[in-house]
Amino acid sequence: MDHLLSFSPDRYSRIAQILSLTVLGICTLGFVGWVWYGPILTSFVAGFYQMKINTIFTLACGAVSLWCQIGRHRRPAVRTAGRGLAVIMVVLGLLNLSQYLWNINIGIDELLRGDPFAAPHQFPGRTSVPSSCGIIAAGLALLGLQHKKWNSRAVKLAAVSACVWIGLGVAYLYGLASLYQFNAFGGLAIPTIICFILLNIGVLLSQAQQGFMFYFTNRSYAGLAARRLLPTAILAPVLLNWLVLFGHEAEMIDIRTALAIETIIIALVLTIVVGWCARSLLAFERLVSIKQSEKVQALEKAARLAHYDALTGLPNRVLLNERLGEAIKAAGRKAGSVSLLFIDLDRFKPINDTHGHQAGDNVLIQIGQRLREVVRETDTVARLGGDEFVVLLAETRATDDAGLIAGKLITAIEQPYKVGEEEMYLSASIGISVFPKDGMEPQTLMEHADAAMYYAKSLGKRNYQFYAPHMTHEAVRRASIERQMRMALDEGGFVVEYQPKVSVSNGRLIGVEALVRFKPTDGRQPVSPVEFIPIAEESGLIVPLGRWVLEEACRQNKAWQNAGYVPLPVSVNVSAAQFRSGNFADVVHHALKTTGLSPAYLDLEITETTVMQNFDYAIGLMRQLQGLGVSVSIDDFGTGSSSLSKLKLFSADTLKIDRSFIRDLPHNRDDAAITCAIIDLARNLNQRVIAEGVETQEQFAFLQEHGCDEVQGFYFSAPLPAEKFESMYARQW
Ligand code: C2E
Ligand code: MG
Ligand code: MG
Question: Which of 4, 120, 128, 683 is most exposed, with minimal Cβ within 10 Å?
Fold first, then answer.
C-alpha cells in the first residue's frame, strides 16, 4: 500500500522545476519568434494575440526566479538572485500598469524591441493590463516564497492567480473573447495564459509541504484521494464540455445528446475515481484495524504475562498480591476473614530429574487444574513458581473452612498422574494463615502461610497446618532437623570423623577426637554439629546419638588396633544430657565390652560448664568412670566458671584450652596470659593440657614455648573420615 503514498515532497519541487523550465522554454520560443518575426512562436495560433516581448521578458524572469528558489540544495546567493528577479518583475509590472492608469508612455514598451505588427494607436511591446496584474501577482508570490511571515500569503496569491488564469484559459477554449480580450488594453495570448498557469502552479508545488497545498500533497490516504479527485474534477468537465461545444459547432452532434453523453461520461469518470479512492481508503482502514488489533493483542499479551503464570495460566504472584490486598480490604469492611493456603509439593524434584522437565510441566498443569476444581470461582489459585501454589479463599466463614479445603486439595493432589505410560504419585504440604488473626498485611500473611507450610513439611509432609507463632523459620528448621536426625539415627545417616591430637614435644600423633557428622537424607547441605547438637540435646536425641558415637568410636579404635596400628586413645564428647542420664557409666561400660576396646584407650570430653553445673553429681560419676579405667578431659576449658578448689576435687586427666583463647595468639596479650595461666594450672594440678583450634605455625610455636603438652587443630589436620584418617595414621607410624 505504501507505494501509493510514496509521492515525496521532493518530487513536487522537481515538478515545479520542470514547470519553471517549461515557462522558460515557451518564453525562449516567443523571443525567437520576435527576433525572426515568426508569429506562430509568439502566439501558437497564427493571427491570434501574440505574447508581448516585455511579457516574455518578465515571465522569463519569473521562471528563472522560481527555478532559483526551489530545491533543497540551492545556494543562498542563487536564492537571493531569485528574489531579485521577482523584485524586477514587480517593478516592471507596476510601471506597465501605471502607463495604463495615467495613459502615458514611459517608453518601457520599446525598451527591448518595438512591435512591428502593432496597430498605430497601440503601444508596441507593451504588456496588457491583465498580464501586468498577473506579473505583479506572480512577482509578489515569488518574492514571498522564502519569507516566513509572507510565505502563506504568497501561496494563497499564487493559488488565486492560478485559478484566474485557468479561468481565462477555459474562456479561451470556449471562445469567450470578452474574457480574454481587453480591447484597448490588448488581448491575452495563449502562451501567456499557459505560462501564467504553469508559473503559479510551480509556485504552489514548490510549497508542497505547507499550507493549503499540503492537503493535496501530503502522504496520507486523504492526500492520495485529493490528488486523484482534483484533476478529474477540473479536467473532466472542461475537456468534455469543450468537446461537446466543438462537436455542436461543427454540427456533428446535437446539443441535447451531447450534454446527455457528457453528463454520463463525467458521472462515470467521477464515480470510477471516487470508487478508486474509496478502495484505497478501505484497504488503508483494514491495514489500520489489523495493526490496531495486533497492538491490542500485544498489549493484552503483555498484561497476561505480567499477571499470569506462563505455564499453567494461573495468576502469578503479582496478581495474587493484588487480589489478596482487595480481599483483605473487603473482609475488613465486613469483619470477615480471608484464608491463604500455601501449597508445596512433596518430592516433586525427582519427577523433573527422572522424567524430564516436560513431564514435570505436565504434572504442574494438571495440578493447577485440580486445584481450581476444588475451590469456588471467586477463590484464587495462583502459582508462585516451581512447585509452589497458593490458594486464596476470600470470605472464609470459619477457619475450619480452610482446613476442610486444604484436606480436599491434598486429596486432589494425591490422585495419580499419568505421564506417558507411567502413573506417578505426589503429595503436598499446606500452610494456612488467616486474616485478621495471623496478620493484617498481604506480606505478613504470605510469610506466615509459608512458615506454616514448612512446619507441615517438617512434621513429615502430606498434611496441612494452621499458622501459629512458634512456626518461625528458625523453629521450623529446628523441627525439621530434629525429625531428620531421628530418621538418620535409624537409617545410618550419621558418621564419625576423626581429628588428630599431636604431641608438642615430638610432633607425633598422640590421640584422636571423634566428632559426629550429620548429612540430611533429603539432599540438603550438611548441618554443623554446632547447630544440631543443641537440638539433639533439647530433644533428648543426644542420648541415643551419644551412645552410638561412643560405640562407633570404640569400635573404630579397636578395629585400628586390630589392623596393627599403634594404639591411641580416642576422645569422645559427652554432652550434659548424656552425663546426667543416670546410667552413663553403664553405657560406657557396655560400649567397651561390646567393642572389646581397652578402657585405657578411651577418653571422655566433658565440657567445663557441664561439670560445674552438677558438680557433686559430676564428682561421683567421674569416680565411677575412672574406676572403669577411662580418662576424662575437661573440654572448652576457660569458658565456664571453674573454681580452683572444685577443679582440684574433680581431678580430670586433661584440661582442653578452648579455641577462643588460641584464635588470637600470640598477639592478643589477654589470651596469651590466660593460655599460660591454664598451662601452669594444669601443671600444678598434675594434669595434661591440650590446646584446640591451632591453625598457625605462630600459635603452635607459642604453645610449644609455654609448655603445652598436646595440640589439635587445622594446622595439623581438620577432622577426617575414618578412611582418610587411616592413611595419616599409617604415615605417622
Ligand atoms: P569441640 O568438642 O570443642 O570440638 C572441636 C571443634 O573445633 C570441632 O568442631 C572441630 O572441627 C573444630 N576445630 C578443630 N580444629 C579447628 C581449628 O583449627 N580451627 C577451627 N576453627 N575449628 C577447629 P565441630 O566438629 O563442628 O564440633 C563442634 C562441637 O560439637 C564440638 O566442639 C562438640 O562440642 C560438639 N560435638 C561434636 N561431636 C560431638 C559428639 O559426638 N557428641 C557430643 N556430645 N558433642 C559433639
Ligand atoms: Mg571436644
Ligand atoms: Mg572444645
Answer: 120
* pLDDT value at 691 more than 90: yes
C-alpha–C-alpha distance, residues 476 and 70, integer Å: 84
| Mutation choice for ligand 1 from 692, 694, 715, CB with most ligand atoms inside 8 A | 692
Looking at ligand 1, which residue's alpha carbon is closest to its atom 33?
A: 573
Which tens digits make up the pLDDT trace of 112-136? 555 555 544 444 467 888 889 999 9
- Of all protein residues, the one whose alpha carbon is nearest to atom 8 of ligand 1 is 515
pLDDT, tens only, 532-550: 998 888 778 899 999 999 9
Ligand closest to CA 605: 2
Domain 317-467 has CATH 3.30.70.270: yes
Mean pLDDT of 237-250: 85
What average pLDDT score do residues 62-82 get?
88
The CATH fold assigned to 485-732 is TIM Barrel (3.20.20)
The domain locations on the chain are 2-218, 220-304, 317-467, 485-732
Q: At what angle do helices 53-69 and 129-144 cross, to 10 degrees?
A: 10
Among 397, 405, 366, 400, smallest CA distance to 383 is for 366
| Interval between CA 699 and ligand 3 midpoint (Å) | 17
Which residue among 502, 515, 574 is best mutated to probe the pocket of ligand 1, counting the most ligand atoms within 8 A of its Cβ? 515
Q: How confident is the model at residue 6 (pLDDT cuts 50, 70, 90)?
A: low
pTM of the model: 0.48
What does the alpha-carbon distance between residue 74 and residue 142 come to, in Å, rounded to a whole number?
Answer: 15
**Closest CA to ligand 1's atom 13:** 693
Q: Whose CA is nearest to atom 37 of ligand 1?
A: 515
